Inverse folding.
């Protein structure tokens, strides 16, 4: 604490000294910092901010930029199929441009101009429906090779919220660097990056408790661990206050100054923020309006007789022009003047912008970069399982609530049917209970998966694109991690209800009852995953129960199997609930002795009579278990391929 106070004092002194500098820009910035202090935000972040340039340099002194990467693109278009129409909607219209290395580049424009679309197309995050040529160091982009040197940071912070900052960094380091880098070096890198991005003091904070700005910085920190050469960031300043915005851009600028190419989309930067960009690419209606250094925007506008009004932020004025506030003819004029991104006159140093052939000469074909590819999938699987175990332990909904709900429902149902397991007058009630148990297992598991998986899916999309792991590793890890909780909650449920209802205390009967329950839970989970993979939460919540209804109708409950119409008989063979119900009936009524009967008349005193009436063969439970295992495997395989397909489709 004392140390922090002492460094605060040093910082205050440093700030006071540096605020006296004559340089205009710095004076403003230092004033800004002082204002922050006066506001009472003199915390570790301010110290980091003051020291960030050297800290960022220090963070990467051991990780020099491998080879600078220059990105050029020509006539890039992006179009999508219109809904309910055969025509296509063009979102990007043959835009061109050059993004040199060592630059902090802003793709700007009003909302809907196509900023994210351009970022996605150039980074390779989207490949379908993109046309035109994208060059990397003068050669046509080889996406697989290019992705080894880049990272994509999405607008919404898709982070593992139940891990601390350090744990998140450690997982990223283990997944990306594997065993090729020693633990000491990994920890050194983590420490340096966290210090550089002002997160060192928060390393043991749970990610869900971080502020918006800290979460954004953590997103960057995670991707910096393997020292990418190109950083793509979709709106890294959205949702941040002006100080955090400035801080984020200052960090990115430092990363660019070390030779990286840092490209981000940004809505409407303040004048101070705008100055920080080495290159600004302004879009309007999918076309380029300006491409050049931030300081040259005003002369450019002057040159096309659209002078920026005095005391007006040039960035604001450019966005107003791009929005068409001053007429669509102005948009057209600007677009023509800049050649839709072909013109490089307004770059800081146009003579330094190399042609494609020059770039090829400058960067001859070298050895293929080997980065995350070096880490084996088995190692990644281990790390993913470790991460999953930590998350499972801390997850209030998926673990604690699931176990609690299973115990609670078992007690409630058990109470309702207490002691009925040996009562000849309550055989039908037992049959109803079996169906209720099936419904509980299906809905509680399926709905939870439908509600939670779509969020997880978006994280997987980003991490998979950034080459953290393959879909296969993720899928296997996800399946394995969940099994212990599924097993435990199902076991607790089965034990409680079995004892309370008073079914025969025979190990083989209980085993069949439990195995059938477990398989039904796992099938419901697989169905939930399939729906969660294909749909968003709203559609999934609607679709899940609807899809469960036919399986319920064809299970032999309500309408017995023998009463099913001929044309629907096949349905009972594909209904997993039919096998579940038959399995339960077999486990609990097969070869039972005469049941006790305290009433005047017990219609089903002899369980065989009941089995005959519902047209179920009780000795078929092994077939039922085999059918359930087959259904489970089939659904799991379908789910894996759907997830892969979903990832391909999202690109
Ligand atoms: N798959 C799609 N189908 C139909 N229209 C689309 C699709 N993807 C993007 N668009 C449209 O393309 C335009 C550009 O979208 P984009 O997300 O790139 O804009 P943006 O400039 O990043 O906007 P914002 O700053 O608001 O995020 C928008 O009008 C959007 O509605």
């Amino acid at each position: 604490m004392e140390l922090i106070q002492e460094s605060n004092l040093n910082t205050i002194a440093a700030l006071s000294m540096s605020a006296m500098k004559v340089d205009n820009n710095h004076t403003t910035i230092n004033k800004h910092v002082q204002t922050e202090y006066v506001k009472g935000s003199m915390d570790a972040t301010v110290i980091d901010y003051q020291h960030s340039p050297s800290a960022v340099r220090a963070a990467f002194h051991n990780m020099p930029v491998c080879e600078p990467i220059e990105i050029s693109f020509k006539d890039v278009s992006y179009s999508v199929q219109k809904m309910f129409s055969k025509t296509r909607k063009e979102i990007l219209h043959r835009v061109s441009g050059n993004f040199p290395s060592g630059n902090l580049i802003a793709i700007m424009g009003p909302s809907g101009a196509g900023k994210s679309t351009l970022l996605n197309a150039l980074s390779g995050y989207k490949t379908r429906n993109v046309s035109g040529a994208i060059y990397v160091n003068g050669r046509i982009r080889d996406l697989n090779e290019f992705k080894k040197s880049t990272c994509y940071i999405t607008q919404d912070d898709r982070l593992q919220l139940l891990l601390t900052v350090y744990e998140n960094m450690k997982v990223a380091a283990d997944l990306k660097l594997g065993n090729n880098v020693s633990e000491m070096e990994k920890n050194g890198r983590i420490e340096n990056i966290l210090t550089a991005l002002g997160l060192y003091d928060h390393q043991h904070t749970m990610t869900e408790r971080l502020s918006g700005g800290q979460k954004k910085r953590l997103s960057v920190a995670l991707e910096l661990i393997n020292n990418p050469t190109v950083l793509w960031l979709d709106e890294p300043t959205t949702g941040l206050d002006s100080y955090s915005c400035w801080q984020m851009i200052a960090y990115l600028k430092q990363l660019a100054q070390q030779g990286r190419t840092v490209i981000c989309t940004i809505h409407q930067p303040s004048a101070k923020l705008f100055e920080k960009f080495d290159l600004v690419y302004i879009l309007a209606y999918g076309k380029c309006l300006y491409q050049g250094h931030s300081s040259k925007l005003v002369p450019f506008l002057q040159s096309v007789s659209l002078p920026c009004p005095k005391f007006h932020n040039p960035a604001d004025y450019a966005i107003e022009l791009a929005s068409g506030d001053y007429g669509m003819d102005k948009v057209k004029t600007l677009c023509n003047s800049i050649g839709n991104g072909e013109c490089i006159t307004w770059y800081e140093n146009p003579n330094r912008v190399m042609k494609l052939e020059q770039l090829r000469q400058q960067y001859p074909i070298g050895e293929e970069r080997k980065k995350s590819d070096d880490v084996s999938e088995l190692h990644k699987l281990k790390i993913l399982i470790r991460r999953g175990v930590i998350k499972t332990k801390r997850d209030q909904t998926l673990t604690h609530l699931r176990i609690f709900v299973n115990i609670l429902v078992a007690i409630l149902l058990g109470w309702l049917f207490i002691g009925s397991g040996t009562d000849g007058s309550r055989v039908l009630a037992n049959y109803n209970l079996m169906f209720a148990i099936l419904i509980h297992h299906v809905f509680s598991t399926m709905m939870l998966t439908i509600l939670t998986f779509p969020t997880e899916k978006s994280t997987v999309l980003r991490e998979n694109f950034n080459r953290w792991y393959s879909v296969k590793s993720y899928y296997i890890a996800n399946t394995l991690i969940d099994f212990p909780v599924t097993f435990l909650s199902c076991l607790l449920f089965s034990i409680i209800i079995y004892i309370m209802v008073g079914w025969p205390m025979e190990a083989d009967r209980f085993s069949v009852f439990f195995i059938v329950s477990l398989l039904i839970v796992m099938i419901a989970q697989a169905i939930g995953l399939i729906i969660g993979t294909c749909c968003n939460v709203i559609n999934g919540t609607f679709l899940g129960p609807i899809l469960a209804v036919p399986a319920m109708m064809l299970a032999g409950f309500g309408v017995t199997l023998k009463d099913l119409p001929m044309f629907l008989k096949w349905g009972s063979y594909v209904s997993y609930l039919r096998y579940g119900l038959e399995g339960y009936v077999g486990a609990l009524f097969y070869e039972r002795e005469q049941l006790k009967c305290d009433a005047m008349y017990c219609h089903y005193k002899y369980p065989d009579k009941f089995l005959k009436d519902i047209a179920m063969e009780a000795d078929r439970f092994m077939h039922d278990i085999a059918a359930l295992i087959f259904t489970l495997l089939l659904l799991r395989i379908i789910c894996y391929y759907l997830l892969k397909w979903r990832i391909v489709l999202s690109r």
Q: What stands out?
A: Residues 80, 89, 91, 109, 111-117, 265, 267 surround adenosine-5'-triphosphate (CB under 6 Å). Strands lie at 71-81, 88-99, 104-108, 130-136, 139-140, 150-153, 230-233, 261-266, 279-284, 287-292.
